Amino acid sequence: MVLYKRENYLKKIRGFYHDSDIIKVITGVRRCGKSSLMKTIIEELIEYGVSEENIILLDLDSKGYKSIKNPEQLENEIEKYDCIQGTKYLFIDEIQNVGGFEEVINAYRGEGDYSIFITGSNSYLLSGELITKLTGRYIEFEMMPLSFEEYVDMKKFYGKGVSANLTEELDKYLNEGGFPKTIFYDNPEDKRIYIKSIIKEIFEKDIKRRVKIRNVSVFEKIQTYLINNFGSTTSLTSMLRELHKSGMDIKRETLNRYIRILMDAKILYECKRFDLKSKKSIHGEQKYYLSDLGFYFATNMDNRINYGPALENVVYNYAMSKGYEISIGRIGKLECDFIMRGHAMDYIYVQVSMTIMASRETEDREYAPLESVLDNYPKYVLTRNDMIQKRNGIVHKNIPEFMVEGELFG
User: Fold this and answer.
1) Which of 105, 112, 136, 310 fits a 20 to 30 Å CA distance from 157?
2) What whole-number distance in Å separates Cα of residue 43 and Cα of residue 30?
3) How would residue 205 be classed by pLDDT, with cut points 50, 70 and 90?
4) Cβ(63)–Cβ(95) under 8 Å?
């Protein structure tokens, strides 16, 4: 099958294809497309004239390589290719399956004739030995599941049919999420079952094997609570209070640890508050967004869309795929949904709303935080399907068209 190119990520990596001194580390939640991205890079290298003989792909989850579990076995496998002349392009998929792989990878990086690419499903890959031994010698490229623009483009690429009404496509995306394989399932229930299997796989392979969870049922309840409350302003104190109301009493340290585990597994992303006046992060309250909305709809029987947090999550994931740093903005007593730090270290202000046309009061509420910002950085109001408004130089766009057109903020 011809692979769909994830251009958002390829363009970030291309400049390092031939760099033998930098290890390219591709991370992201399970099944978001890391293996396919590796294969796409291989296809491009061959197109650029690299001999297939010089390309080495070790998929440590596959039948041929799953028995490689220790550094010696990994080194013995790579050693088979030492006789090949010229730069060798070494791709290792799911490298965290090998305990203590760091020294082996560092040794081959040090030889100078291997350009190394590795993938992992979680941030454990970037802990311990790799960070201490490879400081400044690796770059992490973090992948997300398909953003809305990629979802539409990939459906077109594989001939899956795309509605002329992009708002309809957005609603499908909100329910289905962006795991690439779900595009190939036509039955919504099949999509749901597949995403549930991803959640189970993450727990078995990315959590259970690496951290000790004494009470699995409590952990699963915390996971469900956080998935159900994505996009809500929260704090450890308020979560403990809500959990107590539901009959669950756990220690603050345990809750904090479970949240960190879910973030390490790339199920959740924390979005902290940022104060525009002091230009500092505000600790305490924050929001958690899902790496994919499919996690929510796969674990809930209610298919109704709560557009407020869902649209925020879509915009958050889109900005992440473009490489922006994202915070919730506090502007005096007002709050801006997102402050994004652009590639040139400037700021972009974004309000997200299902609609601003419900009433004049609704419109004023969405525009007020942006109008209170006195600098000249770009300001956006993003809605689901409104008639486009013009007000005080603030850019109003509808999310489906904005993203499908591939627009960047700023």
Assistant:
1) 310
2) 22
3) confident
4) no
Asked if 59 and 25 touch (Cβ cutoff 8 Å), the reply is no
Query: Helices 307-321 & 148-157, crossing angle to 10 degrees?
Result: 80
Longest CA–CA span in the chain (Å) reads 72
Question: What amino acid occupies position 89?
Answer: Y
Structure tokens at 166: 């992009």
Nearest Cα to Cα of residue 74 among 84, 82, 65: 65
Q: How far apart are CA 291 and CA 145, in angstroms?
A: 7
Distances (CA, A) of 283 to 232, 237, 273, 288, 325: 16, 13, 7, 14, 17
Helix residue ranges, H only, 161-215: 166-176, 188-201
Name residue, tokens 């483009």: 153
User: Contact, 133 vs 20, CB < 8 A?
Assistant: no
pLDDT tens column, 217-227: 999 999 999 99
pTM, entire model: 0.93
Q: Hunting for tokens 């076995």 — which residue is that?
A: 73
Q: How far apart are CA 138 and CA 118, in angstroms?
A: 10
Q: What is the pLDDT of residue 123?
A: 58
Q: Two tokens at 221?
A: 């309840």
Query: Three-class SS of residue 338?
Result: strand
Residue 133 CA to residue 384 CA, distance in Å, equals: 47
Q: Which DSSP letter does residue 335 get?
A: E
User: From CA 353, how far away is CA 151, in angstroms rounded?
Assistant: 21
Judged against a pLDDT cut of 90, whether residue 389 lies above it is answered with yes
pLDDT at 126: 65
pLDDT score, position 358:
94
The tokens for 80 are: 């088979």
Nearest one of 68, 73, 113, 70 to 90, comparing CA atoms: 113
Q: Nearest to residue 40, comparing CAs of 9, 11, 5, 12?
A: 5
Residue 153: pLDDT over 80? yes
pLDDT digits (tens, 9 = 90+) for 71-130: 999 999 999 999 999 999 999 999 988 988 888 998 999 888 999 999 986 656 766 566
Q: What angle do CA 300, 251, 125 make, to 5 degrees?
A: 70
Q: What is the mean pLDDT of residues 294-307?
A: 87
Structure confidence by residue, pLDDT tens digits, 181-190: 999 999 999 9
